[in-house]
Amino acid sequence: VQLQASGGGLVQAGGSLRLSCAASGSIFVTNDMGWYRQAPGKQRELVAHITSGGTTNYASSLKGRFTISRDNAKNTLYLQMNSLKPEDTAVYYCYAYRPGVWGQGTLVTVSS
């Protein structure tokens, strides 16, 4: 089981990015998936979660700006991030809840 995150980069405040996480193996379709992030000097925190059936949950501070989605045909998880702020700067990780597998992380830097 492997997760490959991509799509990070440098963006100005107010801009948008879309992260992708490609999953190998057969775990994706039946698995709950999530995006987490870790800012410098801070603990890793949940950004958003999506069940195998498509039900979503978000960190309360991010709801309305970020959207998690999945394409089961492509075994890919997405995170659309809009109205980005400097405090969104972090390494973003995708996560498969069963059996608990992390992607390698992709860096998002938002400049003011």
How is the topology of this model organized?
Layout lengths: L2 E4 L2 E4 L4 E7 L9 E6 L6 E6 L5 E3 L7 E6 L4 E6 L8 E7 L4 E2 L3 E6 L1
Parallel strand pairs: 2-11
Antiparallel strand pairs: 1-3, 3-8, 4-5, 4-9, 5-6, 7-8, 9-10, 9-11
Task: Write a structural description.
It contains no helices and 11 strands. The chain has strands at 3-6, 9-12, 17-23, 33-38, 45-50, 56-58, 66-71, 76-81, 90-96, 101-102, 106-111. The strands form 2 sheets. Strands 2, 4, 5, 6, 9, 10 and 11 form a 7-stranded mixed beta sheet that branches. A 4-stranded antiparallel beta sheet has the order 1-3-8-7, with no helix packed on it. Strand 4 (33-38) and strand 5 form a beta hairpin. The mean pLDDT is 95.
The total strand number stands at 11
Biggest sheet: strands, sense, closure? Answer: 7 strands, mixed
Low-confidence stretches: none
What is the helix/strand order?
Answer: EEEEEEEEEEE
| Proportion of residues in β-strands | over 45%
Distance between the termini: 37 Å
Helix content: under 10%
- The pLDDT mean sits at 95
Approximate shape: globular
Cα Rg? 13 Å
Provide a compact summary of the structure.
By secondary structure, the protein is mostly beta strands. It contains no helices and 11 strands.
Summarize this structure as a short list of keywords or feature phrases.
about 110 residues, mainly beta, seven-stranded mixed beta sheet, four-stranded antiparallel beta sheet, 11 strands, globular
